[in-house]
Design goal:
The protein is mainly alpha-helical. It is built from seven helices and two strands. Strands 1-2 form a two-stranded antiparallel sheet. The longest helix is centred in the first third of the chain and has 42 residues. The model has no long low-confidence stretch (mean pLDDT about 85). It holds the Pfam family Vut_1. GO terms for molecular function: transmembrane transporter activity. It is a multi-pass membrane protein. Involved in the import of queuosine (Q) precursors, required for Q precursor salvage.
């Protein structure tokens, strides 16, 4: 029996998967970043172990798909995060059932501090846009050579912009009030995120090569 049903074909690309992971890491980081963490003399937040992954994925997107596609992913993450924050506030404001005993905890965990949200969104936009723009501009000069230089250069610029903007806005909201602790918080965040991305650069290399192979990149003529 023939069918008249028509559907839009799904493109066989890794871009949607990478975009989903990119957005998920950012949304989760916004929640875990609300906790101030002290590891010995080091002051940081609860997202310090996860957020560098967003830059690894961002590097893969920028290197493989270009600035326009990466910018689309960045703005998608921005929009989804705003949707998540609005949803959290609505859920908190809704009247709790009589048998529900965890309203205070629910509100504490998901009631993201507006200052944290602002810091995260501002840092995210500045850092990710700088990271992808620098990487693409370097690629225009180096071609397929010196991937390590593109990754390192874009990381230094993007992570510094992100960390500086986020920490200056967010520090007072998580209880960091002195200049010394703010500098500690900013420098550690920048150093940690940069060192992590440098440490996982072999994984980033492998991921970029795998994505390029899957997408038929090497079969295409050079522009």
């Amino acid at each position: 029996m023939s069918s008249n049903a028509r559907f839009i074909p799904v493109q066989r690309s890794l871009y949607p998967v990478l975009l989903a992971l990119f957005v998920a890491v950012f949304v989760i980081s916004n929640i875990t970043a609300t906790k101030a963490v002290a590891i010995g003399p080091i002051i940081t937040d609860g997202a310090f172990f996860l957020f560098p992954l967003a830059y690894v994925i961002g590097d893969v997107l920028a290197e493989c798909f270009g600035f326009r596609a990466t910018r689309r992913a960045i703005w998608t993450g921005f929009g989804v995060t705003i949707l998540a924050v609005v949803s959290f506030y609505i859920a908190i404001a809704l009247p709790a059932a009589e048998f529900y005993e965890h309203q205070p905890q629910f509100a504490t965990i998901l009631g993201l501090v507006p200052q944290i949200v602002l810091a995260s969104l501002a840092g995210y936009l500045v850092g990710q846009l700088l990271n992808s723009w620098v990487l693409v501009k370097l690629k225009e000069k180096t071609g397929e050579k010196s991937l390590w230089a593109r990754l390192l250069g874009s990381t230094l610029v993007g992570e510094f912009g992100d960390t500086l903007v986020f920490c200056l806005i967010a520090a007072p909201a998580i209880g960091i009030t002195t200049v010394g602790d703010t500098v500690n918080y900013t420098l550690f965040g920048f150093a940690w995120k940069t060192l992590v991305e440098v440490a996982v650069m072999p994984i980033t290399y492998a991921a970029i090569r795998w994505v390029k192979q899957r997408e038929g990149y090497f079969a295409e003529p050079a522009a």
